[in-house]
Amino acid sequence: MTSERRSAAWFSATGRAGMIYRSWMRNQGFGAEVFDGRPVIGIATSASELAPCNAHLHRVAEAVKRGVWQAGGFPLEFPTMATGETLMRPTAMLYRNLMAMEVEELIRANPLDGVVLLSGCDKTTPAMLMAAASVDVPAVMVTGGPMLNGKYKDMDVGSGTHVWKFEEELKAGRMTQEECFFAEGCMARSNGHCMTMGTASTMACMAEALGMQLPGSATWPAVDARRFETAQAAGQRVVSLVEEELRPSKILTRQAFENAIRVNAAIGGSTNAIIHLLAIAGRVGVELGLHDFDALARDVPTLLDLMPSGRFLMEDFCYAGGLPVVMRQLVEADLLHAGPITVTGKSVADNVTDAECWNAEVITPVAEPFQPAGTGTAVLTGNLCPGGAVLKQSAASPELLTHKGKALVFDSAEEYHAVCDDPELPVDASTVLVIRGAGPKGYPGMPEVSNVPLPAKMLKAGVTDMVRICDGRMSGTGYGTVVLHVTPESAVGGPLAFVRTGDEITLDVPNRSLTLHVDDEELNRRREAWAPPGSPYTSGYTWLYTHHVLQADEGADFDFLQGSRGHAVPRDSH
Ligand code: FES
């Protein structure tokens, strides 16, 4: 067994090369005994002060290390890039694939037998899962945990969700700028990622639902002592995973993805999970399409009453029992595959069989759910989105789910922002705001700009929602009747590129359709007169990105990164 470990190619080597590998490591104070053939465990840490959601991961890494030592492994922490959602421009999503590529190559290039992946902010979790899937060494995910509930005046406020709400209050004149400044410090009051059911919390739950994270660990707040206990347990467990050769390829099966899709529906998770799960599936060769998300989610009720769709936050979800309660309920209702193996070495059902619900207001029962089945994220098709589009019903206004209106078209989010407060803007409550140029290639990076704020004039008139259509994404913390991920995007000549102000559009969510009322002949005329927008990127990473990124319905991964490249030990360097 020992000789089959990857690390043996380095640390068990004799002669000059072996001496180089061991000797330089010993400058950190490691004794000779760590090279005795024990599993070498990498701890991939995306800690960074530029990614505040991940800033505490060094502490989490210390707990993982403790566990690895306890179980007889040799832990080695290494930094990875961190894609922080709040600061990175033009969008952290532009760098998800770069991070995935970096983590994959770091694991393969080094003497690692197993890895623990530390993530937090939105893109860092999928990037690490994509990497682990492609290199396929035994891996356990440990997400960094959500922030404590935000507390502003007498209410709980959710990161992200209340940024939009406060902006609306400010624009409508119901809140002052001073109150907004004060609220900033109340919203983010501890280490951790967003504590709404935004993309970070969703992806933490997806890692757990896929079987790549220990049961219950998605929800412990970042500053809760049990977050560190969980991390320590992950460190212990990964050593056994190496012994058992339980690799991501054995865990990330089609059934595991089907479970994740259903869990996403039950938690009212982010639409971004669709793109990330498609990308991860692409790395392990699991056939997954947009239609799977609609078909599998249709009979799953939303159980969690969490922001942005509901009232509570991740801390409440944790104290109510966390994701194992949701998964147990779904297993009992025959809505999950019970059998897939997980990083615990046990099945999904075995992991959650004892999970108890401590607060049925937060985690509602399947029989009396927060929202009934069929109200989750819908996948739309039609002549405006031949490759599909998505809409999060639970974050939308029910009365707008069937809507016909005239388009007001903008070629970019910036173009809209420049005029949205203009009292003369030609809009009424029925207008459909069309924002294009926000797709993977066009922006580039497919940013979260789709839920543009409503025009100030409509907010002042008391309008709280309008239909918006965009080829970009929406933050998992966002809300509104927003058609997202329109595919193909406008920059590659999708029909969205040919919509003109005044065209009529029908959104029919119950029938899963999005229709542009322009006949084919006219659409073809517009297509022939259309020229793709030029790209200013002639070199560098963004050039690579624009030339190789796939469309949203394929996970927006790079075409050349799909599939697994395995964990074979590379050639010697000495
Ligand atoms: Fe990092 Fe929300 S900004 S998780």
TrEMBL record:
| GO biological process terms held by the UniProt record | branched-chain amino acid biosynthetic process
Which is an annotated GO molecular function term of this record? hydro-lyase activity
Q: Which segments constitute the Dihydroxy-acid/6-phosphogluconate dehydratase N-terminal domain?
A: 38-351
List, alphabetically, the InterPro entries matched: Dihydro-acid_dehy_C, DiOHA_6PGluconate_deHydtase_CS, ILV_EDD_C, ILV_EDD_N, IlvD/EDD_N, Sugar_Degrad_Dehydratases
Positions of the Dihydroxy-acid/6-phosphogluconate dehydratase C-terminal domain:
361-556
Family classification: Belongs to the IlvD/Edd family.
- According to UniProt, the name of this protein is Dihydroxy-acid dehydratase
Q: Which organism is it from?
A: Amycolatopsis acidicola
